[in-house]
Here is the input.
Amino acid sequence: MARPNRRALLSLGLGLVLMVVAITSACGGSSGEDATTTSTAMATDSSTTVDPLAPVLGTDPTRSVVVGPGRRFELVLPADPTRGWHWELEPVDTAVVVPLSSEFRDDRTLLASTSTSTSTSTSTTTIIEPMATGQPATTTTLDPDAPEAAPLVQVTSFAGRTPGITEIRLRYVRIGGSGDATRTVTFTVVVLRPDQS
Here is the structure.
């Protein structure tokens, strides 16, 4: 039987030592507590990372939307398109922002995050016919031209173009209605210089 080479045994031993050192340092130390602390810190760091490509959301007209040039942002408002109600964009300063698109979404989380209510419905009382007790029966009906509480959100997308401050105004109108807005909402948008963003 051949005897192992002393040089080969030394190389194998050194390789094993290096592997143990690498595993120990990857775990953050020799104790379980250090490894747990390291992995918890790593998990915390990754959970707070913000996707730089995700659009900035504007859900509250009382707060300015701040973006950099080329950065996409979305204005989110409740709407009821099933009854013809939608937000209509008034002319914008295209030197500062660029309108991209508008769509409706069935997203309860976004709907809950909006601070604008569109509910301005009126109710009327109508006597149908007397009940057996002699008291008139009543019913409550909605004004068909008044917006109800919106079940969806309308997301209007833009992109910052050049540094500046502008206002974006949206009117809540009904398709085929009189054209008069029941509500008008104004968002202030600040597009920062590249060195500020």
Observations:
- The chain has a mean pLDDT of 73.
